[in-house]
Write a structure and sequence with these properties.
Transcription Regulator spoIIAA, binds S-adenosyl-L-homocysteine, alpha/beta, 6-stranded parallel sheet, 5-stranded mixed beta barrel, 14 helices, binds FE3-S4 cluster, globular, 4 domains, Rossmann fold, binds iron/sulfur cluster
Length: 444
């Protein structure tokens, strides 16, 4: 077998959700233990990885247009290897290799711990496809490097996969069944992150509040229990978790928002539609009423809590009446932040076979919904003006002496400071809001 150029430099481009962002960071981090460092431009690398998302049609199309760009780079640097990983890789597997001859590897999201071996293989000229769902924990097998001075905030995956099978969604097929990582491993990793400078953790999972795992002692632990355990870490100042499913918002978890000071008053709780008839067609497993009750309980315990959501408009069978119920729901909840999408039919999902609404109808509804969401989002931001917020400073701003951090409610806050305040939680008086970002001055 012929030996190719040794892979020493890697470039990773990431699409999709925070799960993919976490996976990419972890891949870069752990490969550094094998002497492979990350570079900022694809043409400087020996291996380009494209971490892909399959959630909507447009997201998946990007892979092939991106591969077209990499083809040019490869023409000038023929030694560069190219890998497609993530959810499109899982969904399309071998087909990607057939469609694009420049691809050397296709890996699904559950086999990243095999990367060091696979890199050896592609270095030797093999083309590798691996879309298995092995039972082992990929991150336990893929060591985390001992970085000092990590950023002040970090993700930590605690759960992956989904068993909910919403009728529009590819995630149960691309990420596999719900699995939860062991609490001992999670707490150890959380402690290591905090020791290396992290002050805020966001626990990640496709269905993070479906977290359920056994301790070594055999005792079962849910997300509420896991959060309590992680919050004991003294130098950890803030905790968040994302994404939650309304069906799995247990009372124990809701109660934590009233008593656990480190748990930030922000919750991303997608509902998708404000109509029960659409929710049923979507197979969401909850009603508008049960969703509102959950929010009311949360607001009773934590009146200032910021609620964020996801919406799909133009789902097959959605009438004008259904859509207006979604608008009504938004007026009722007043989301601090929300993502909204036109329904995108995905092959292999139950809704794929149903009649798709005309594009024009979807576009009109999306515009209307987004206008409403924007009003509430701006209002939420405006209400913070003149208040004092504790802001965790994450990075430098555009100008010298400028820093950017986040409020407890996730709003970006810009502030000036003569000294480096990254990693610190600073009291800031909010002076203005430009709709997306807040500006303020340090006090005390
Ligand atoms: N696990 C999360 C969401 C994962 S996908 C949850 O259940 O809430 C992120 C968002 O993408 C979804 O909340 C949904 O709003 C959107 N989405 C998923 N499939 C979609 C599709 N086929 N068309 C349009 N939007 C979709
Ligand atoms: Fe997709 Fe539904 Fe699972 Fe969320 S809960 S990942 S929308 S199937
Ligand atoms: Fe996309 Fe996969 Fe996340 S399909 S949204 S990258 S789980």
């Amino acid at each position: 077998m012929k030996m190719g150029k040794k892979i020493e430099k890697i470039f990773v481009k990431t699409y999709g959700c925070q799960m993919n962002v976490f996976d990419s960071e972890r891949i870069e981090d752990s490969l550094s233990n094998f002497g492979i460092r990350k570079v900022k431009e694809p043409q400087w690398s020996d291996l380009i990885l494209l971490n892909t998302c399959h959630i909507r049609e447009k997201a998946a199309e990007k892979v092939y247009s991106e591969l077209g760009r990499f083809k040019k780079i490869k023409r000038e640097n023929p030694g560069i290897k190219i890998g497609v990983i993530g959810c499109v890789a899982q969904a399309e597997g071998q087909e990607i290799m057939q469609r694009s001859k420049i691809v050397d590897m296709v890996l699904g999201p559950q086999v990243y711990h095999r990367l060091p071996d696979i890199i050896q293989k592609i270095q030797n000229g093999e083309r590798v496809v691996d879309t298995e769902f092995p039972l082992e924990d990929k991150f336990e097998k893929l060591p985390q490097s001992k970085q000092v001075n990590r950023p002040s905030t970090s993700f930590l995956t605690v759960q992956e996969g989904c068993d909910k099978f919403c009728s529009f969604c590819v995630v149960p097929y691309t990420r596999g069944a719900e699995t939860s990582r062991s609490p001992e491993v999670i707490v150890r990793e959380a402690m290591e992150l905090v020791e290396s400078g992290v002050r805020e953790l966001t626990l990640l999972g496709q269905n993070v509040n479906a977290y359920q795992a056994q301790r070594k002692s055999g005792e079962l632990l849910d997300l509420a229990g896991l959060i309590e355990e992680i919050c004991v870490i003294e130098d950890l100042k803030r905790l968040r978790f994302v994404t939650s499913h309304p069906k799995d918002m247990t009372d124990d978890l809701i109660l934590l928002f009233g008593k656990e000071k480190k748990l930030m008053p922000y919750l991303h709780l997608p509902i998708q539609s404000g109509s029960d008839s659409v929710l049923k067609k979507m197979n969401r497993g909850h009603t508008v009423k049960s969703y509102i009750e959950t929010i009311e309980k949360l607001r009773y315990l934590r009146p200032d809590i910021a609620i964020s959501g996801d919406f799909i408009v133009g789902f097959p069978g959605e009438t004008e009446e259904d859509f207006s119920l979604t608008l009504d729901l938004c007026d009722r909840i007043k989301y601090a932040q929300a993502y909204s999408f036109k329904y995108s039919p995905r092959a292999g999902t139950p809704a794929y076979e149903r009649d798709d609404l005309p594009e024009g109808v979807k576009t009109k509804r999306l515009t209307k919904l987004q206008e409403k969401l924007k009003i509430h989002q701006k209002e939420f931001q405006r209400n913070l003006v003149e208040t004092v917020q504790e802001v965790l400073i994450e990075k430098c701003g555009k100008f010298s002496d400028q820093y950017i951090g986040r409020s407890p409610y996730m709003n970006p806050v810009v502030v000036a400071s003569p000294r480096n305040i990254i990693g610190k939680i600073i009291k800031i008086k909010i002076l203005s809001s430009n709709g997306l970002t807040l500006s303020g001055e340090t006090i005390g």
